[in-house]
């Protein structure tokens, strides 16, 4: 009824927003496989420091496995990364050493799969976490 050629504009807007949200980390056009491990490691270190600083957990987490890393050049460098992270044996208030061993006690083991987008200007050591999502693994 009077919706015209495009149907309900509000419904179209909601569908577009949902499509963008669901496809957010599925691989964006313009991103390509990352080849600079030095910059990927710096980006991972930045993400883990940010994650641990914002976590309420008593223990630090660290990267267990890099699942995917893509890069896009803009005014800086954007990294779209998927990682599996795990809880370590190191207490957060004692140390910030991300080479701590993972929890061995089954009751204390915890891991997440995290997708994140970091904008960086590596030549001036500038990093910003633009988006992240972590789900318990």
Automatic annotation (TrEMBL):
GO terms for biological process: G protein-coupled opioid receptor signaling pathway; signaling receptor ligand precursor processing; transmission of nerve impulse. The keyword Signal applies. InterPro entries: CSTL1, Cystatin_dom, Cystatin_sf. SUPFAM superfamilies: Cystatin/monellin (SSF54403). SMART domains: CY (SM00043). Residues 1-19 form the signal peptide. It holds the Pfam family Cystatin. Keywords: Disulfide bond, Signal. GO terms for molecular function: cysteine-type endopeptidase inhibitor activity; cysteine-type peptidase activity. CDD domains: CY. It comes from the Eukaryota. Residues 26-135 form the Cystatin domain. Belongs to the cystatin family. This is Cystatin like 1. It comes from Sus scrofa (Pig).
